[in-house]
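Case study: FAD-binding domain-containing protein.
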Amino acid sequence: MPGSPAVIRTSSSVTGCDCDTRTVHLSNGSSVQGDVIVGADGIRSAIRDEVIKGFASEGLKAIPTGLSAYRILVETDKLLKLDVLEDVFSLKRLATTMIVGYDKRVIIGPGRGGEMFGLVCLVPNPNLNNESTS
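Here is what the predicted structure looks like once written out:
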């Protein structure tokens, strides 16, 4: 594709953004600008209000569900090495599967034509609303 490659910035503490100018403001005082802003800054988002301005009432906050979601992509050939009962989950069937326990869920589905599988694990998190200690 023509143009500059995407730049992914990690470990950058975001304090806010300006969607009109596509500018993100960082806690170190610097700002970065790009074509697209992806706000993946979690439940305590610093930019949610700015991003949804005009679409929802000001100050709209995320509603905690009491669950945390952990996501991972795994190569199918690595999953084939695991001892998983066929009646629980079949890697041969390219379909999304949900395994449900009392208060936990694992959602598994194929990607890239079956070369990869995505897993989402939903687990209770009673401390979700507590402030982080780190």
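For the exam, be able to explain this: Helices lie at 48-52, 76-79.
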